Amino acid sequence: MTFTTDRMDVPGATLTYDVFDTERPDAPWLVLVMGLGVQRLHWPDGFCEELAALGLRVVRFDLRDSGESPLAHAPEPWRVGLSAVRDALRGRLLDGLDARALFQKALPYSLDELADDLVALVDHLGAEEAHVVGMSFGGAVAQHAVCRHPTRFRSLVSIASTTGALSVSMPTRRALPV
Predict the structure, then answer these.
(1) What are phi and psi of 131, to 5 degrees?
(2) Residue 134 forms beta bridges with which residues?
(3) Which of 64, 16, 62, 33 is nearest to 135 (CA)?
């Protein structure tokens, strides 16, 4: 099975995506969202092909500033570092500064905009609704999109992600074997 690659414009960015299509035009859409700074190709071709063989129209895309989606800004967030991003998602303080505020200051877009990018992709595909699977930060984007636009998604799978809420604790050693 082959896939097609295309681009679409959203306010302030251009997103690159691949479609693994089935021969059923009425088949449901499944959108795969990878984590921060990780290219869509980390969803392996074989995995996407298997999902398409099961009758799904599969699309994987690069978030802003990832993979082949062009940089939306100068690479300032990488000066902040991935550890700061991790801490920002956990709501920790860095050097007396609010990490979330630091992260938001470093990026010219918000989680709301990333979630809206996902919905814009669903619109661009001509789908009324889609299933969505997000990994790591892609899971946070997917969760946020589903919360903002619940009627646009049939299901959500969030893998190795977080809500970003301070009240959500980190995994414990007891929970790890599960």
Answers:
(1) -85, 150
(2) 33, 158
(3) 33
Hunting for tokens 């809500």 — which residue is that?
Answer: 163
- Number of helical (H) and strand (E) elements in the chain, helices listed first: 6, 8
Q: What is the pTM of this model?
A: 0.79
Q: Where are the domains of the chain?
A: 4-72+111-159, 74-107
Write out pLDDT tens, residues 108-150.
778 889 999 999 999 999 999 999 999 998 999 999 999 999 9
Q: Please tell me the distance from the alpha carbon of residue 119 to that of residue 171, in angstroms, as a whole number.
A: 30
CATH code of 4-72+111-159, in short, is 3.40.50.1820
Asked whether the beta carbons of 102 and 3 are under 8 A apart, the reply is no
Helix (H) or strand (E) holding 158: strand 153-159
DSSP state of 43: S
Task: Check if the beta carbon of residue 174 is closer than 8 Å to that of residue 73.
Answer: no
User: 93-107: string of b/e by CB count within 10 Å (b at 16+)?
Assistant: ebeeeebbebbeebb
Per residue in 15-43, is it b (16+ CB within 10 Å) or e — as a string?
bbbbbbbbeeeeeebbbbbbbbbbebebb
